[in-house]
Amino acid sequence: MTHLPYIAGAYGLTLGLAAWLSMAAMLRLSRARSRLRAVEQRGGRMGGRRP
């Protein structure tokens, strides 16, 4: 009996999970950048004034 299916399955799950986490991180980063760009265009929370 070979253990190859279990090893291949474990590697497949690991690579799939890593890809899913990477895509989720890239999506969160792009959303955060667009939100930051919107805030900067409005002048920030303080209306562009420094305290």
UniProtKB/TrEMBL annotation:
Keyword Membrane in annotation: yes
UniProt keyword Membrane present: yes
Annotated Gene Ontology cellular component terms: plasma membrane
Membrane topology: Single-pass membrane protein
Highest taxon in the source lineage: Bacteria
Signal peptide residue numbers: none
InterPro entries listed in its UniProt record: Haem_export_protD_CcmD
Family: Belongs to the CcmD/CycX/HelD family.
Described function: Required for the export of heme to the periplasm for the biogenesis of c-type cytochromes.
Name of the protein in question: Heme exporter protein D
Naturally occurring in which organism (per UniProt): Lichenicoccus roseus
